[in-house]
Specification:
This protein is an all-alpha fold and about 160 residues long. The protein is built from eight helices and no strands.
């Protein structure tokens, strides 16, 4: 923590390894493994609770769909953000933009935005539900990209069914 204070206050004499200020601040602010696991669990559980709560509140008259869309989207963002505790934000962003998951990442983020647009601005219930379903599928496809050969197995399974 002292190293972080030195880096942010400009009192750091500069590392001889030639790294820039962002890299040094990132290195100085790393969390211990126990703290990272706790942050991951808290964020992930919060995401699951938000998603389940949103699903339960879907049936509330008048505002149910808007509450559902917001809570479901917030839940997915929390679940996605929870992995940043394990990997770190920079590595998470790099893996999200890797060539094997960039399409799933973009599709997932677009569906997150479109869900909120359908609920708030367009006020179209059908589109909001459709985008929530697409959000779920995109998030699942994104998650499967971290399991070796999982996507290939799903594709093969569906090709056998068709």
């Amino acid at each position: 923590m002292d190293k972080l204070k030195q880096v942010l206050s400009g009192q750091d004499d500069g590392a001889s390894d030639g790294s820039n200020i962002l890299e040094r601040a990132n290195q100085a602010s790393t969390l211990a493994l126990g703290t990272r696991v706790k942050g991951f669990i808290i964020c992930f559980v919060l995401g699951v609770v938000c998603s389940i709560l949103g699903t339960c509140l879907l049936w509330v008259p008048a505002v149910g769909l808007i509450v559902f869309a917001v809570l479901y989207t917030a839940g997915n963002l929390c679940a996605l953000g929870s992995t940043m505790f394990l990997m770190g934000p920079l590595r998470q962003l790099k893996t999200m933009c890797a060539k094997e998951r960039v399409i799933a990442t973009v599709l997932m983020l677009v569906c997150l935005v479109l869900t909120l647009c359908a609920a708030f601005w367009w006020k179209n219930n059908g589109l909001a539900v459709l985008f929530c379903i697409l959000q779920f599928l995109a998030f699942t496809w994104y998650g499967l990209s971290y399991i070796p050969f999982a996507r290939d197995a799903i594709i093969k399974l569906f090709s056998l069914c068709v």
